[in-house]
Write a structure and sequence with these properties.
Elements (H helix, E strand, L loop, with lengths): L2 H15 L1 H13 L11 H5 L2 E4 L5 E5 L4 E5 L10 H9 L3 E5 L14 H14 L3 E7 L1 H11 L7 E4 L5 H11 L4 H15 L17 E6 L8 H9 L3 E6 L11 H11 L15
Parallel strand pairs: 3-4, 3-5, 5-6, 6-7, 7-8
Antiparallel strand pairs: 1-2, 2-4
Helix pairs in contact: 1-2, 2-8, 4-10, 5-6, 7-8
InterPro entries: AB_hydrolase_1, AB_hydrolase_fold, Carboxylesterase_BioH
Protein name: AB hydrolase-1 domain-containing protein
Pfam families: Abhydrolase_6 (PF12697)
Length: 281
């Protein structure tokens, strides 16, 4: 029996006998990121960065000069996962600041959630020049959408592989780890207590999105269904949608079609609301 099957078996039993306890253990797992080191291909960009610490202790990397673009990675992610996009942005004359999310990298904290990520974006924006754009991957994208509802100011916003509603993420995780029905319900309630907001409210359909934006997603994303991109795009009148034929959940960050679409948005180039399906490069 592999470790995941063992965890599901334990949760199936304890989730019936002690649902609150099982829910609490899985909430801790869900909210506690693992420290994953950068890959070898990220190291050259890391070496060329400037490490900065913001007022409330958040750590970030900075490159280039020009209009400011703020980046937020996803769950268990790193700033340097945006390596290809960062090089393209710096080459086009932008200053890039990429955060270590709460409880990630050198930023403080042990646990994280979308609300903490959103507040981190607000804190960073308060110390940076007016933002030309905010770009978020996965949970970073969902948190960037949320941050705009909390007062984040930016001229443009880009989401990459982002979920459209947090409740779906919670349900997928609870199902993946094998929590039975009552424990799943309690898991969601516990997450809501820690984040301080009902999960159902963290849904793009409830947001008022008025800034120009770009929604990017790969057709073969195994973690966040591409239908989430359609939902974000449908709820966001000023957005463009770019669906890539391949790229999964992570490799999409290195796709040239992504960086081309981002630069076109930032430079004010006219484009159709739904961009042609791009082949993965």
């Amino acid at each position: 029996m592999n470790s995941m099957n063992w965890i599901r078996g334990v949760n199936a039993t304890l989730g019936r006998l002690a649902p609150e306890w099982a829910a609490g253990r899985m909430r801790e797992v869900f909210m506690t990121p693992r420290p994953l080191p950068p890959r070898d291909w990220e190291l050259p960009l890391l070496a060329s960065s400037e490490r900065i610490t913001l007022r409330f202790g958040l750590s970030a990397l900075r490159w280039g000069e020009g209009p400011a673009v703020l980046l937020m990675h996803g769950w268990e992610g790193r700033p340097t996962q945006f390596a290809h996009l960062i090089r393209e942005l710096v080459g086009a004359g932008y200053a890039v600041v990429a955060l270590d999310g709460p409880a990630h990298g050198r930023s403080p904290g042990r646990e994280a959630n979308p609300m903490l990520f959103a507040r981190a974006l607000l804190e960073a924006a308060s110390e940076l020049p007016p933002l030309r754009a905010v770009i978020g991957h996965s949970m970073g994208g969902a948190s960037a959408l949320l941050a705009t509802q909390l007062g984040l100011k930016t001229e443009a916003l880009v989401t990459i592989s982002a979920p459209s509603r947090i409740l779906s993420v919670l349900r997928r995780f609870a199902g993946f780890v094998g929590l039975p029905a009552e424990a799943r319900h309690r898991f969601i309630r516990q997450v809501e207590r820690y984040t301080g907001v009902p999960a159902a409210q963290l849904d793009v359909k409830r947001y008022n999105l008025t800034i120009p934006g770009l929604v990017v997603h790969a057709e073969d994303d195994p973690q966040v269904p591409v239908a989430d991109a359609d939902a974000i795009h449908a709820a966001w009148p000023g957005s463009r949608l770019l669906r890539l034929s391949g790229g999964g959940h992570q490799r999409v960050l290195a796709d040239a079609a992504l960086s081309d679409a981002v630069l076109a948005l930032l430079e004010g180039q006219e484009a159709p609301r739904v961009l042609p399906l791009a082949l993965a490069s």
